[in-house]
Amino acid sequence: MNIASQPQNEVSNSLVTHAEPNAQDQAETAQSHPLAMLTPEWERLQLLGYCLGQSRQGKEIPEEKLQQLTVLQQAVRALRGKQGYWHKLLGLELSELEIDILVFAVGPQFEPRLGWLYQSLGGDKSEPYACRALIQEFLAMEAHGSETLIRLLGESAALRKNRLLLLEANDPFSPIKPEPSLVARILGHDYEESAPPGTTRVRAQATWQDLVLPEQTLAMLHEFLAWIHHQDKVVGQWGGKCIGGPVALFSGPSGTGKTLASSVIASELNWPLYRVDLGQLVSKYIGETEKNLNKLFSAAQNRKMVLQFDEADSLFSKRGEVKDARDRYANMEVSHLLTKIENHYGPCILTTNLRKQIDPAFARRFQLVLEFPRPDKSARRQLWQVMLPPRAPLAAEVDVELIAKSCALSGGHIRNAALHACYLAAAEETEVGLGHIATAVWRELAKEGREISPREIGVLAKHLPEAVYAGA
């Protein structure tokens, strides 16, 4: 009997073992080694490969082999049922064929013989993974079965949308690989996905209490979250147009809380925040920028993350007269980046210190534009209260109202100055006093690289140690 002549569902539901499974033995084995419970999956693929080899040579499949393919039916049904291994591992309702594809992909990770088997049966000699064509032949699917496989391996299908499989192209001979995160889950390991190319993970944790911003800006941050939280309802249930993103522009001077607000958004979503370094992506060589952007967004596809693009004004500046090919190419780069951002289904935040430099024509591409102004005296008082460590021993003379009125620092400068003052006090093994704070504020202003005067720190000037001022 030729296995290729059997209906696809019979073969794909067939299993292989050499003895009727014993539930108690299986439970004990699985407890001692969790991967052992997947043995029926690997054995089935091995025997299907043997049957395929026999079929290619025009040989009949021995009856005992066909019987072995049916013996473990109950074991695999248990693994693949609603209360089975795969459902508990993934939390997804997958079809029999979708689990078949997953098993084909992860098999070589745990059973090297399967990788060699794929290669011997015509797979990519450099890759120990099955391709779509080989899976179709393994499962003895009819020609129209390729349409089903194409659909199940599509970018928006469950296997790729949930980042279970890696596939460079949905063609018959591209190797189908498991995502590293899937392998880690099967092994029971924690897994942190690598940062997309050209990005750096921002690990600062922040909450709404850390933000000292105008009410209007805070309200718009919540509106930005609404775009993310309720996209399924507006698009899926209400029939709203799916436009990707959302995309927001955070505009304001340095140190006013743009990155901190991005961290709050990421923390609220419980997603990682990645800062995109446009310097690593933009290349002087024609075509390289687009390639780098494609790699970035390909790696970010279907991943729950927040992307933050700093210094957006460097790319989205007002367009001048096109004088040469380089000018035209620069405009093409910007258009390509905008297209990628708009087609990316995930929050993108662009920050700028110079909103006036951004071409107004780009504004319609953003769902929201948020202003981050310099803090006024009231906001500075709140910032000093938030930034001074809650258990730091403060001298009785420390009055945050007085400190806030003394010098108009931004939130980032206040954070640095508050911590610097604490380290000065800790080194002297004393309370944090106005002398420490005056020194820290002076050091912060000196970072600007200009000549400064004690008048710039107001009433704090009289607390500034003479040695600090004399050394300026």
Automatic annotation (TrEMBL):
A GO term for molecular function: ATP binding
Record-linked SUPFAM superfamilies: P-loop containing nucleoside triphosphate hydrolases
Pfam annotation, one family: AAA
SMART domains associated with the record: AAA (SM00382)
AAA+ ATPase domain ranges (all copies): 244-376
InterPro entries hit by this protein: 26S_Proteasome_ATPase (IPR050221), AAA+_ATPase (IPR003593), ATPase_AAA_core (IPR003959), P-loop_NTPase (IPR027417)
Alphabetically ordered keywords of this record: ATP-binding, Nucleotide-binding
Family assignment from sequence similarity: Belongs to the AAA ATPase family.
The protein's name: ATP-binding protein
